[in-house]
Task: structure prediction
Amino acid sequence: MRILGIESSCDETAAAVVQDGHEVLSSVISSQIKLHAAYGGVIPELAAREHLKNVYPVVEAALREAGMKAEELDGLAVTSHPGLIPALLVGNAYAKGMVAATGIPYVGVNHFQGHLYAAFLEHPELLEDPANYPILGTVVSGGHTALVLVEENGAAKIVGTTLDDAAGEALDKAAKILNLGYPGGPIIDRRAKLGDPKKYDFPRGLIGSAGKPVPPEHKYDFSFSGVKTALLYKVRDRELSDAELNDIVASYQAATMGVLVAKAITAARDFGAKLVCLCGGVACNSHLRAEMQSACDRRGIQLVLTPPKYCTDNAAMIGGLGYHYLKNGWNDALDMPVSARLPQDLGIFPFARNAKLTR
Result:
């Protein structure tokens, strides 16, 4: 089955054609980073206007790259939640127009699930091995920071999440405090390589490092407000040399990434996870990838690192995920709504080994 994926949940307009859930025939992304940089974050209405301009040429480019026409597709998958409502509406309206014109089946998919699936796009065989379950997904992006346990039957639950900022947001806000530019994640990753990550001792939230025990109900949760505030006080009213700035950035990154690694390893141990996957936009961070790999190697845990090209928002993960719904006859009607929020009930993850989809 050849599925067209369309992604427009935030500030990337993306389209991809994916065959049988993992063979990426094309992947096209139009980014709006430069447009939103002046504001230090994504403006939803501005993002929607850019999606309106970009969605047709991006979809056409994806079809052309795959050597296909729209009517030759076997189905269509579009991000329906979570995300920015104005942005989601554009992608969904375009998808529904294509469905009305061609008669192909389509399905709305969960962007959050898409990031988890992206880790396995190039290695679907890992999902077929019963020895790899349960899987612990570590989803780290500008909008989400969560630990998700996925069972062999597709049942999934969030076992830990952030109580305030997502990790990507904490990096963006740090870059803003330091006047480094937007988006903050890639800038901090590059700058941190020039500094000493042990120079400054930034707080690490909810891991008991300050001698205060972590409440049991927050054992797997995250909090980045403390490290962000500590950074603000550290640099306020100070003129920093390049060397000092590099050390501060490196130490801040080490603190935030260290919490992500510590929580993931703890959850993997406690829930008996056989495999950990790291996904989402922040999974591009070189320090996080190296530290997570080292921690998993020390404990004999298999780690799947999402390829950088599939870490940030893309449509290959949407088309690949949509295949698993559509092959089981899970179709949506043209009145399918969009939603800004991640639902409390994650439902069944259709790509799990023995997933049983029921309406």
